[in-house]
TrEMBL record, chain A:
Species of provenance: Candidatus Desulfovibrio trichonymphae
Protein name: [NiFe] hydrogenase maturation protein HypD
Any single Pfam family the record assigns to this protein: HypD
Domain of life: Bacteria
NCBIfam families linked: hypD (TIGR00075)
The keyword DNA-binding appears for this protein: no
Similarity comment: Belongs to the HypD family.
InterPro entries in alphabetical order: Hyd_form_HypD, HypD_1, HypD_2_sf
Keyword Metal-binding tagged: yes
An individual GO BP term: protein maturation
Signal peptide: none
Keyword annotations from UniProtKB, A to Z: Iron, Metal-binding
From TrEMBL, chain B:
Entries under InterPro entries matching the protein: HypE, PurM-like_C_dom, PurM-like_C_sf, PurM-like_N, PurM-like_N_sf
The species this protein was found in: Candidatus Desulfovibrio trichonymphae
Name of protein: [NiFe] hydrogenase maturation protein HypE
Membrane-spanning segments: none
PurM-like C-terminal domain residues: 161-313
């Protein structure tokens, strides 16, 4: 039995479910997972159908595609449509609708040169084989992706590859969680515990989440992605709530070091600087994004190609992506869900990405 | 002789004749084709007849486990077979891009000939067009297959009945992932190979051993998920599958988990789904496993009566979820 199979073992899962039920002791628990990969795993493994009915599962702002703002989508669509530009992107950005429902697929059909890549380093190969074009890579993702993109910039500089630049839309997880919890009144988040992202935490470690427990008295547990990993994390949350002892802990030590990965953080810091960023459905969050440092301006698409950010009209009327991302509602509560908004004709980005919570509800649950 | 294809070769004149003689007639060699009349005369196709056509535009032209040539034969042979027919003859239309390497063309034609030989079908008529550079991507092939139906009643997507067993002839996802891997040069996928194969002989054995089956389908584009959802809709039934029982190679599982793809949504080119009464499932499975293309055949689920026409998966940890119809092309995720 491989390690991964072991973590799908029905017996082990039953033991953990029993521990979870005991820890809940009849109480309810509203937890939010921050990472899109958790969302998919919870649905795909069937774990959701096994969770005690008193658990409410919310999906947070952790799918990089879902939180990309209309203004940014409009900006990269404009970039992709320019002459002598090759827009090299990860595949799932192709279907993300910008203003007026336009996507990279539309841009491609209209003649834009769009290439799907699988790693940022692959983009450099493209650059070398397309010397007459400028290759633009949209830097979309969280702390997990940013170090690899930083490494790519450094490699490009070292290899003197001049026709490559990044449109950095990277976002940072802790400031987003802070914003969710700082909302007050009607907008106040109703989240009792966080399942913290496994991949992001390999870079950050656990210290940046300390405010969850210190300031808000909310448990935060870093968890892995197999069903038993997630169940273990849920047990730890429920036990902290039962004992009224909230803390930020690491329940995924086989991948996450409590101190994170300082080398990867150093790479990020070398190339990027924190800046305000726009989050779809949430709005502007201070110091929650990464921009390319002026030292690397020649590889900053925003500077080199003069990207213009233009205010876009309000997102589609009726789309509740913001409320979904903040965990205030579950997707099926959105009036457009499954009727006007489906993965075939997505209205909001939460329905586009395979890791979006609306798409997961649509794909895996009866409706 | 030229090393690459010139527009002349599609002119209908001497250049065309040379290409036909040196490449197509030579490798597809059979008396019906050799007559070179405007149409092929077929005397031994008996009603009811199954006819199927498909166009092949795969990039890259060569991939681990096959090529556009083998695919153009296997795909059409399999489609005809799914009606409980014995595929006999194939027509093929080539659309070739000016400048195509003649050596490559010939090797792909040889692949077609080899695949046809294995399947026991003859390529009896064809057409070649050469289009200017840029008007197509190297090479497109259309094939049409024809064959007499021997299964009575004929299998159909409308015939799944409550209580039937759902079988699949082997592991899923290999072809789709192989194409993605070789198109994008993903070195970590170097150990996956397309399952492209002719299924006609295996299907004949299955029907011999288990009698007429209710449904036969090959889960090509959209994979198992799309095919089973279509059958559920057509037959007005639901299905319950056991995730644990669905064969998927480890290499495909790990490649998919890296790319955020689901093997049950990836294309297969050498697999069939067979739905038949429960009491004949073991016979059908034994017949599949006796074929080199069905060694990993497995029973993966049951047809159930729920009128909602949905396919539900009982997961490895004992939970349940829907296996829904796919949307568009699977795209690898960010992360
Ligand atoms: S269902 Fe569609 S419209 Fe509603 S919140 Fe989700 S993505 Fe937005």
């Amino acid at each position: 039995m491989t390690f991964e199979t072991a973590l799908h073992d029905p017996k082990l899962c039953r033991v953990l479910l029993a521990r979870l039920t005991r820890a809940l002791d009849g109480r309810s628990m509203r937890f939010m997972e921050v990472c899109g990969t958790h969302t998919v795993s919870i649905f795909q493994s069937g774990l959701r159908s096994l969770l005690p009915a008193s658990i409410t599962h919310l999906s947070g702002p952790g799918c990089p595609v879902c939180v990309t703002h209309d203004v940014d989508v409009a900006a990269f669509l404009e970039l992709a449509g320019r002459e002598k530009i090759v827009f090299a992107t990860f595949g799932d950005l192709l279907r993300v609708p910008g203003p007026g429902g336009q996507t990279l697929k539309h841009a491609k059909a209209a003649g834009a040169h769009v290439e799907i890549v699988y790693s940022p380093l692959e983009v450099l190969t493209l650059a070398v084989s397309n010397p007459d074009n400028v290759i633009v890579f949209p830097g979309i993702g969280f702390e997990t992706t940013a170090p690899a993109v930083a490494a790519t910039l450094l490699t490009a500089r070292q290899k003197k590859i001049k026709n490559f630049c990044v449109f950095s839309l990277h976002k940072l997880v802790p400031p987003a969680l802070r914003t969710l919890l700082d909302e007050e009144g009607d907008n106040a988040a109703n989240i009792e515990a966080f399942l913290l992202p496994g991949h992001v935490s390999t870079i950050l470690g656990i210290a940046p989440y300390a405010f969850l427990a210190d300031k808000h008295r909310i448990p935060g547990v870093v968890g892995g992605f197999e069903p038993a990993d997630i169940l273990l994390a849920l047990c730890r949350m429920a036990e902290q709530l039962r004992d009224n002892a909230p803390a930020v802990v690491n329940a995924y030590p086989r991948a996450v070091n409590d101190a994170g990965n300082p080398k990867a953080r150093a790479l990020m810091e070398e190339v990027f600087i924190t800046t305000d960023a726009l989050w779809r459905g949430i709005g502007r969050i201070e110091q929650s994004g990464l921009a390319v440092r002026p030292d690397y301006a020649d590889m900053d698409a925003a500077v080199r190609l003069g990207v213009r950010l233009v205010e876009t009209p309000q997102q589609q009327p009726g789309c509740c992506c913001g409320d979904v991302l903040k965990g205030r509602i579950i997707p099926t509560t959105c009036p457009l869900f499954g009727e006007k908004c489906t993965p075939a004709v997505p209205v909001g980005p939460c329905m586009v990405s395979t890791e979006g919570s609306c798409a997961a509800y649509y794909k895996y649950l009866e409706h | 002789m030229d090393t690459c294809l010139l527009l002349d070769a599609g002119s209908g004149g001497l250049a065309s004749q040379r290409l036909t003689a040196q490449c197509f007639l030579r490798h597809f060699a059979n008396p019906l084709l050799a007559r070179l009349d405007d149409a092929a005369l077929l005397r031994d196709v008996h009603a009811p007849i199954a006819v199927s056509t498909d166009s092949y535009t795969v990039t890259p032209l060569l991939f681990p486990g096959g090529s556009i040539g083998t695919l153009a034969v296997h795909g059409t042979v399999n489609d005809v077979s799914m009606l409980g027919a014995r595929p006999q003859y194939i027509s093929c239309g080539f659309i070739l891009e000016e400048g195509l390497s003649l050596e490559l063309l010939e090797s792909l034609v040889q692949d077609m000939a080899g695949a046809a030989k294995e399947a026991g079908v003859l390529i009896v008529t064809g057409d070649t067009k050469v289009v200017p550079r840029g008007a197509c991507d190297k090479m497109f092939i259309n094939t049409t297959g024809i064959g007499s139906i021997f299964a009575d009643p004929t299998p159909s997507g409308h015939n799944a009945r409550v209580g039937d067993a759902v079988l699949v002839s082997g592991a899923l996802g290999d072809h789709g992932l192989t194409i993605m891997g070789s198109r994008e040069h993903l070195s970590f996928l170097s150990d996956v190979t397309s399952d492209s194969a002719p299924l006609n002989h295996m299907i004949a054995e299955v029907i011999n051993a288990a009698g007429p089956v209710h449904v036969l389908r090959d889960p090509t584009r959209g994979g198992l998920a799309a095919t089973l959802n279509e059958i559920s809709e057509q037959s007005g039934v639901s299905m319950l599958l056991e995730e644990e029982a669905i064969p998927v190679h480890e290499s495909v599982k790990s490649g998919c988990s890296f790319l955020g793809l689901d093997p049950l949504y990836l294309a297969n080119e050498g697999k069939c789904i067979c739905i038949l009464p429960e009491n004949r499932a073991e016979d059908a499975l034994a017949a599949m496993r006796a074929s080199p293309y069905g060694v990993e055949a497995a029973r993966i689920g049951t047809v159930v009566g729920d009128k909602a026409c949905r396919v539900t998966l009982q997961t490895r940890i004992g939970g349940r979820r829907i296996l829904s119809m796919p949307e568009g092309v699977p795209l690898p995720r960010i992360c």
